[in-house]
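A reminder from the course coordinator: this example appears on the midterm review sheet, so study it carefully.

Given structure:
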C-alpha cells in the first residue's frame, strides 16, 4: 500500500470516528478495563480521568504490578529473559480474573502491556473487545520483546500514534491498525507562569526541553549550550553527558513543567527517532501550556500545526535550530503570536485524551 493510500485511509477513519463520537449514546453500554501505568504524567492516567469524566464505568489495573520490587531482579529479566516482566504470568491471570468479575465490554491496554497472548485469547472468548493504544514502538530495539510480539496479533484493535510502524504491525499479524495521535490532558497541561520574582528568576531560560536523553537528542541540546543559550533541561540521564550535564535539572513534576514552559522564551519539541515518531506527547502538551514552540520538521507535525510560521517554527538541522532560536529570542512579539496560535490550534480542536478515548471507543462500538 503506498503512502497516498495510507493517508486517505487514515483521513477516512478520522472522519468516521468524528461522526461516531457525535453519537455518544453508543458509549453508555460500555464498561472499560484499563491495563495501564496510572502515574500522573502517563497516558493511562489521562485515559482513566477521561473515562470517569465521560461517565463510563471503568476499572484500572496497574501494569507495574508485573514487575518485581527488586530493581536488580527486573534488570536481570529485562536483559537475559527477553524483556519478560518478572510476574507476567501472575499479572496476566489477574487481568483475566478481573475480566470475569468486572465484565468489561472493552479492555484497553497501553504500550508494552504485560498481558500474555493466551490470556488475550481467553479474554476474547469471553466476548470482550481487546485494544492497545500502542504508545511505544515495539520494533524499537529498546522495547523489542518476543513475548509481546506474540501477544500483539491477539488484540482486536491497535491504535498507533505513529504511522511509520503501521505496515510492520500489519506484517506482524495485527488485522486492524489505526493511526491515533497523542493528545493533552486539560487538568495537567495548561498555562501556569511562575509567580513572584524569585520564581520568575528560577524558571527564566532561553530554551526549555523536557524528555529523556536519547542519543540523537544530545547533539541538539549540546549545540544550544555551546552556542551560549541558557537551557532548562529536564528528564533522565542528561547528567551523564559532558555536553549537557551543566543544564540538567533532573526529573520534573507537572507544575514544574508548566512553570518552566512558561518561563522560557522558547520550548523545543523533538521526536524520538528510535521510536520512529512523527510527533510526541509534547507536541500537544506544550501548546496547551502556552509555549512558543520550535518543532522538529516532520509530516505529522505539519499536519498538526500547519504551514511554517503559522503556529510553530520548524527546523531540520542543528544549524537551523540555532538560527531559529536566536531569531525568536530577540522577537518577543513573534513569540507571543506563535504561542497564541499554537494554543488555539490545539485547544480549539479535538485533541484531549477524552477526545481520543471517545474516538477509540466509538470505533470499537461501530466495528463488527
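Designed residues:
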Amino acid at each position: 500500500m503506498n503512502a497516498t493510500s495510507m493517508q486517505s485511509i487514515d483521513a477516512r477513519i478520522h472522519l468516521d470516528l468524528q461522526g461516531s463520537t457525535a453519537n455518544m449514546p453508543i458509549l453508555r453500554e460500555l464498561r472499560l478495563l484499563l491495563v495501564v501505568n496510572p502515574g500522573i504524567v502517563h497516558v493511562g492516567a489521562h485515559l482513566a480521568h477521561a473515562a470517569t469524566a465521560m461517565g463510563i464505568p471503568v476499572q484500572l489495573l496497574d501494569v507495574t504490578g508485573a514487575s518485581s520490587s527488586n530493581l536488580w531482579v527486573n534488570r536481570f529479566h529485562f536483559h537475559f529473559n527477553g524483556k519478560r516482566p518478572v510476574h507476567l504470568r501472575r499479572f496476566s491471570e489477574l487481568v483475566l480474573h478481573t475480566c470475569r468479575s468486572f465484565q468489561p465490554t472493552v479492555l484497553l491496554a497501553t504500550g508494552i502491556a504485560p498481558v500474555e497472548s493466551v490470556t488475550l485469547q481467553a479474554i476474547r472468548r469471553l466476548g470482550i473487545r481487546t485494544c492497545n493504544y500502542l504508545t511505544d514502538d515495539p520494533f524499537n530495539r529498546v522495547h523489542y520483546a518476543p513475548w509481546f510480539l506474540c501477544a500483539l496479533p491477539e488484540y482486536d484493535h491497535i491504535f498507533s500514534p505513529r504511522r511509520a510502524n503501521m505496515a510492520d504491525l500489519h506484517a506482524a499479524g495485527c488485522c486492524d491498525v489505526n493511526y491515533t495521535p497523542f493528545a493533552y490532558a486539560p487538568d495537567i497541561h495548561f498555562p501556569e507562569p511562575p509567580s513572584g520574582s524569585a520564581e520568575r528568576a528560577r524558571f527564566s531560560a532561553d530554551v526549555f526541553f523536557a524528555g529523556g536523553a536519547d542519543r540523537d537528542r544530545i547533539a541538539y541540546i549540546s549545540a544550544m549550550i555551546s552556542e551560549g543559550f541558557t537551557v532548562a533541561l529536564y528528564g533522565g540521564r542528561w547528567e551523564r553527558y559532558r555536553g549537557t550535564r551543566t543544564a540538567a535539572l533532573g526529573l520534573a513534576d507537572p507544575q514544574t513543567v508548566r512553570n518552566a514552559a512558561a518561563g522560557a522564551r522558547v520550548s523545543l519539541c523533538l521526536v524520538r527517532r528510535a521510536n520512529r515518531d512523527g510527533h510526541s506527547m509534547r507536541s500537544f502538551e506544550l501548546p496547551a501550556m502556552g509555549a512558543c514552540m520550535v518543532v522538529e520538521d516532520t509530516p505529522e507535525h505539519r499536519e498538526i500545526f500547519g504551514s511554517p510560521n503559522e503556529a510553530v517554527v520548524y527546523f531540520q538541522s542543528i544549524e537551523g535550530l540555532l538560527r531559529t532560536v536566536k531569531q525568536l529570542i530577540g522577537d518577543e512579539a513573534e513569540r507571543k503570536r506563535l504561542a497564541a496560535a499554537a494554543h488555539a490550534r490545539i485547544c480549539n480542536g479535538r485533541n484531549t485524551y477524552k477526545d481520543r478515548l471517545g474516538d477509540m471507543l466509538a470505533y470499537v462500538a461501530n466495528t463488527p
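The chain has two domains: 3-183+352-365, 196-347. The mean pLDDT is 92.
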